[in-house]
Amino acid sequence: MIQNKIKKILVPMDGSKTSFAALDSAIEIARACHATILGVHAISFLPTGFMPSVVPYEIYQKKEAGKFMENAKIRAAKKGIVFKYTITFGSPVEHIINISKSKKFDLIVIGAHGKGRVKELFLGSVSSAVLHKSRIPVMIVK
User: Residue 20 has what DSSP assignment?
Assistant: First the structure.
């Protein structure tokens, strides 16, 4: 019955081990349900005091994100899963929630902790916020 309900899976990724663990879980679900996966990476803006260095920073971050997203695409393709991705700028939580609503995703699969410098006790700040703000099911992978 669940196989008929999950057709679109959203996987927020930041290149961390846990984001790839989340991708692996999403791939397994996608295989069972014949679903597709969209990977999303949101590059946070620097505080305004760093304005002179923002453009090189954004270019570098987008290039790095493209590398790990392409690796994710290959990883999914090896298992026969369609994986597309998007790289955005701004708040990761806002982008994840907005994309999940506007594109009508059925499930969000997210790593428990990302690459953030400050780790919370049990969940990362992004995964915790997504869990609480999402109106669709969220699977958190450790």
Answer: H
Q: Are 51 and 2 in contact (CB under 8 A)?
A: no
For residue 98, what are the CA distances in angstroms to 4, 78, 115, 133?
A: 24, 29, 22, 10
Give the tokens for residue 126. 């992004």
Q: Which two tokens stand for residue 128?
A: 């915790």
CB 27 within 8 A of CB 75: yes
* Position 51 confidence tier, pLDDT thresholds 50, 70, 90: low
81: helix, strand or coil: coil
Q: pLDDT confidence of 46, banded at 50, 70, 90?
A: low
Q: Is 89 helix (H, G, I), strand (E, B) or coil?
A: strand
42 φ, ψ (degrees, to nearest 5): -110, 125
